Amino acid sequence: MASYMLRRFLGSLVVMWAVATLVFFMLRLVPGDPIAAMLADAGGAEEIEAMRRSLGLDRSLLVQYGIWFGNMLQGDLGNSIYGSRVPVTEALAEALPRTLSLSLLAFVIAIVIAVPAGILSATRRNSATDTTVSLLAFLGLSMPDFWLAILLIIVFAANLQWLPAIGYVPLSEGFWPWFSHLILPAIAVGTAFSAIIARMIRSSLLEVLKSDYMRTARSKGLTPRMLMFGHALPNAMIPVITVIGIAFALLISGAVVVENVFAIKGLGRVLIEGILNRDYPIVQGAVLVVSAIFVFSNLLVDLLYGVIDPRIRLN
Amino acid sequence: MTDTAQTYEAEIPAKRRSRFTATLAHDRKAQVGLAVLLLFAFAAVFAPWLAPFDPNAMTMDMMSGLSWTHPLGTDDLGRDLFSRILHGTQVSLLIGVSTVLIALVIGIALGLVAGYFGGWVDQIVMRYIDLQWAFPNFIIAVYLVAVFGTGLLNVIVALSLAFIDDFARIVRSMTLSLREEQYVDAARTLGFSKARILFIHILPNAVAPIIVQATVSVSYAILGEASLSFLGLGVDAYTPTWGLILADGRGFITQAWWLGVFPGLAIMLVVLAINFVGDWLRDALDVRQAVEG
Questions:
Q1: Rounded mean pLDDT of B253-272?
Q2: What is the pLDDT of residue B107?
Q3: What CATH number is associated with residue B199?
């Protein structure tokens, strides 16, 4: 098991190295001169040259890459080139807990809804419950997350005035203020994720319920509850866990968009503001962190997969 | 080619067709989905004639509610929401379909070459797929738009590049299994060219999972374009797209709910219809295993 974990961990590090390299070189493809574009309003030729030197852009591409990569390993992603020019790592460190809070809450809400819905749907196949769950899942999959966010604001913040429409309060200031600010965005982000998981649990359970070992377990006289929780569900969850890893991309992409609706200054908002301000160091850093979250959450899912199903790590 | 082979090849499409119609007859969701898609396609093609107003024409009739003149109300600049949404259909469908077509062509080429030739070609393609796998599709699109700028063409390119790996992966795994089939061996023994084997013998047999993936991808491309437009990274500020209309109306949703409801409803209806049709195709083509396996 240890060697499997190590192998997967090293594999993820290689992927992250490739991601960082790609992100670095892609940005150098920016058409035109980014510095000139950045200083379009205020910059003369001298200022452009000075900025170019201060950012090390007068050196060869490979040297720039070497310096950037070395700095990155030490946690230095450069400074923002817009506004107060804060260090990129500082801006990202401030944003990260917000995005993680949002994604994790969305994840929990999605699972709490999807697991019972998937089980109900599979055990009462073709019933009214099954049809309802299936239709709701279709709706959840088809609804753009930012639109759902707007609808939630119209209903729960503007009309009912139960919850705040925008902003973020850290958990350190109390559970309710944190939760009340995050619950609407979390629902908006988690809905599509929940729909995918519920559908997957349903089809995976239906497959397992047909299997020979379930017939044997039933003929041994196990109660329906023991059948479901002792035999069917653990086996049905194996493919579901893989899908959770893949669908995690939806959570992160959703967070990026939905943060912008609720004015939560998480990674998504930082990323989009960075793009609109042509603040390339910020954009580069935010994309790196977002893909790192994605790569390592997938690693976690893979390891979990190895724990649940020993056949995986033996291969 | 012998007569038997010709008859056999002619039988497959016929069988497939009958399965399509047979499953469609029982699938209410797919029927609704197809009808909705046809309606939106009609709206997209005839938008300039169907729209009662110029989608960008500003009037003094600002934020007026639903009426006979303005069936879906007007926005803060007095523009007719129905006409704007109707024109938005064009952009959404154009981007949804063209994006997937581009990703499809490149993804199929990569997948066929990697799966059939193996070796270092496969290694390179696989590493590329792995690398793209490290980014959520939408983040790739956002990053590409950040690098190359906004605009119709850039959005199409950004979204297509984001979807390539999905197709390459499926076609590669299908090609890997199909190249071991006896009929492919036979074609090789007969001395057929590699291109002929790939495009005449292997690709047609991998079509089913590709169609299903393409359908799913169109819905994601439409959602992706809407999200980009909503974030201000879409086509431009003057072309009415569903995401942009929602972004424009966002500040006024408490006074004019229709600005927050109808553009999103249009996106949801199209995506829902595509998902209904996708589910039917998945059943009709029996590809659950191939796509997910």
A1: 91
A2: 94
A3: 1.10.3720.10
Lowest mean pLDDT among A296-300, B52-56, B61-65: B61-65
Task: Indicate the helix (H) or strand (E) that contains A136.
Answer: helix A128-142
Q: Does A260 touch chain B (CB under 8 A)?
A: yes
How many residues are present in chain B?
Answer: 293
ipTM entry: 0.85
The angle that helices A267-276 and A233-261 make with each other, rounded to 10 degrees, is 40
Pairwise CA distance, residues B256 & B63, whole Å? 6
Angle between helices B207-230 and A145-152 (to 10 degrees): 40
Tokens representing B257 are: 């709910």
Q: For residues B288 and A266, which has the higher predicted lDDT (pLDDT)?
A: A266
Q: Do B260 and A151 touch (CB under 8 A)?
A: yes
Residue A303 identity (one-letter amino acid): L
Lowest pLDDT segment from A65-69, B51-55, B62-66 = B62-66
Looking at residue A30, its pLDDT comes to 67
Helix, strand or coil, per DSSP, at residue B187: helix
**How far, in Å, CA of B78 to CA of B76, rounded?**
6
Kindly report the nearest CA distance between residue B8 and chain A, in angstroms: 33
CA of B139: which chain A residue's CA is closest?
A253
Is the dihedral angle over the CA atoms B231, B234, B238, B243 positive or is it negative? negative
Domain locations in chain A?
Answer: 32-76, 92-308
| The predicted structure's pLDDT at residue A245 | 75
Which residue of B139, B155, B291 is the best one to mutate when testing the A interface, meaning the one whose CB has the most A CBs within 10 A? B139
Q: What average pLDDT does the segment B85-96 reach?
A: 92
Tell me whether A133 touches chain B (CB under 8 Å).
Answer: no
CA distance, residue A220 to nearest chain B CA (Å): 31
Q: In which residue ranges of chain A is pLDDT below 70?
A: 1, 30-44, 309-315
Q: Contact, A80 vs A86, CB < 8 A?
A: yes
Domain count along chain B: 1
What radius of gyration do chain A's Cα atoms show?
24
pLDDT tens, position by position, B233-257: 888 888 899 999 999 888 888 888 8
Mean per-residue pLDDT for B66-75? Answer: 86
Tell which A residues from 66 to 85 touch B, by Cβ distance under 8 Å: none
The reported pLDDT for the residue numbered A144 is 93
Task: Tell whether A151 is within 8 A of chain B (Cβ).
Answer: yes
**Amino acid A315: pLDDT:** 52
- The answer to whether A204 and A240 are in contact (CB under 8 A) is yes
Q: Which two tokens stand for residue A268?
A: 């998504």
d(CA A87, nearest CA chain B) in Å: 20
- Classified as helix, coil or strand, A79 is strand
Range of the domain at B95: 26-44+79-292
* Residue B62 lies inside a defined structural domain of this protein: no
Closest by CA to A117, choosing from A106, A133, A128, is A133
Distance from C-alpha of B265 to C-alpha of A150, rounded to nearest angstrom: 12
The arrangement of secondary structure in A92-308, i.e. its CATH architecture, is Orthogonal Bundle (1.10)
DSSP B206: G
Q: Does B7 fall in a domain?
A: no
pLDDT at B290: 39
Q: How many CB atoms lie within 10 A of CB B192?
A: 15
DSSP for A87-116, written as a single string:
BHHHHHHHHHHHHHHHHHHHHHHHHHHHHH
